[in-house]
Specification:
Elements (H helix, E strand, L loop, with lengths): L3 E5 L6 H14 L4 E5 L8 E3 L5 E3 L1 E2 L6 H10 L6 E4 L7 H14 L2 E6 L10 H9 L2 E4 L14 E6 L2 E3 L20 E6 L1 H5 L4 H9 L8
Parallel strand pairs: 1-7, 1-8, 2-5, 2-6, 6-7
Antiparallel strand pairs: 3-4, 9-10, 9-11
The structure holds zinc ion.
């Protein structure tokens, strides 16, 4: 029986590496799959892992229809045994519904990989729907660590070095601001306590080096 699998973890937990490994394992057994991604760190239409592996992928935009794509491919004589879906947190809830339908009606395995919560600590829409629908949910065992050494469970966004907890979930990097330079956006994984205190590694270092002890926010 085909199943909808959801593999989740924080940003540095190796999801894309596992996505590529999953594809490799199934392809090595002669199965035919498709790899999807959206907003990958390497740019459009490529799944890339922090360990340096890359693989071509199909780019998922807001209008993409998984059900229509798979049915169209099969109708034209194509073969699909499984789908690997990276960066699934960015998919719409409708697209996750389409993936569940592909599993149930076409008996095609779907392996989805994504971050659970955004930098505001709220569930991504795609991840929320995956939690609701997945047959199996797996939290990745390669766990990222906060600067303090505790398990990193939360994603932090910094803009020009300062941690922010409000703003657009997806930052469009190529928008030219005429009157002000674009903020330098970066991400960091933290434990819940340090996410709550907005204490990033850089700020913790600055606090520890300050001559007077500073109150934590
Ligand atoms: Zn911490």
């Amino acid at each position: 029986m085909a199943e909808l699998h959801f593999f989740t973890g924080t940003m540095d937990s190796g999801k894309s590496t596992l996505a590529l490994q999953t594809n490799h394992n199934h392809a090595a057994r002669g199965r035919v799959g498709r790899i999807f991604t959206t907003h990958d760190r390497a740019g459009a239409a490529v799944v890339s892992s922090r360990l340096g592996l890359t693989h071509e992928a199909l780019e998922v935009d807001g209008e993409f229809d998984f059900w229509a794509y798979v049915v169209d491919t099969l109708t034209r004589g194509g073969r699909i045994d499984y789908l690997v879906c990276d960066e699934a947190q960015f998919y719409t809830s409708e697209q996750i519904d389409q993936l569940a339908k592909v599993v149930d009606e076409l008996q095609i395995d779907v392996f989805a990989f994504g971050i659970l919560t955004d930098f505001r600590t709220l569930l991504f829409p795609g991840s929320a729907r995956l939690v609701e629908l997945a047959d199996r949910m797996n939290v990745l065992q390669v766990e990222a660590l906060c600067w303090c050494g505790k398990r990193a469970t939360h994603n932090a966004r910094t803009e020009n070095g300062a941690m922010v907890v409000e703003g657009e979930v997806i930052v469009v990097g190529d928008v030219d601001q005429v009157d002000e330079p674009p903020a330098d956006v970066a991400y960091e994984v933290l434990c819940r306590q340090h996410h709550r205190r907005r204490l990033t590694a850089a700020r913790a270092k600055a606090v520890s080096l300050a001559p007077e002890p500073l109150p934590f926010g």
